[in-house]
Amino acid sequence: MRRVLTLVALAVLAACNNNQQQAPQKVIKVQSEEQKQLHQLDAFNLAIGLKHAIYDAGFTCKRITDAGYVGAWKNNDMWMAHCTYDKGAARDWAIFAGPDGSAQVRDCKDITPQSGLPACVIKERPKGSFTDFK
Fold first, then answer.
1. pLDDT tens by residue, 95-116
2. Is 69 in contact with 120 (CB distance < 8 Å)?
3. Cα angle vertex 124, ends 121, 108, to 5°?
4. 85 CB contacts (<8 Å, ≥6 apart)?
């Protein structure tokens, strides 16, 4: 009897361990209203929004002279802002807008191929000017 139970258990394990192909899992993108709204802003208003995220993260940005959408990374939308200052070198900031309305900011010089993050290269620029309010 023990031998029969052992054989049955082995057969069950073998059946469970077969290499059946599983259907590919669908990727679900969760997106907040804030993420959607960023895509609809003109250049001037996008600069204001990105500058707020930079300041809220504890950094500074005197003037944004270029900005735009970089791409999606996981459930975050990655944006880039080029900030100039009266004194000192310009800096590029990566702003990650999350599906929960949050934003994370990183200096683009810290984003390397080893980081696994997309390069700070703008793929879509908004309409309008970053400096002229109309």
1. 999 998 899 999 999 998 888 8
2. no
3. 25
4. 60, 62, 63, 91
pLDDT tens digits, 4-49? 444 444 444 455 555 556 667 776 666 777 888 899 999 999 999 9
Tell me, what DSSP letter sits at residue 19? -
Taking the alpha carbons of 60, 127, 36, 28 in that order, is the dihedral positive or negative?
A: negative
Handedness of CA 30, 33, 38, 41 (dihedral sign): positive
Cβ-contact 77, 37 below 8 angstroms = no
Q: What is the pTM of this model?
A: 0.76
- Token pair of 79, please? 């944006």
Name the token pair of 100: 């929960």
Residue in this structure with the two tokens 């900030």, named with its chain if needed: 83
- Spatial contact of 97 and 103, defined as CB atoms under 8 Å apart: yes
DSSP annotation of 118:
P
Distance CA 120, CA 129 (A): 20
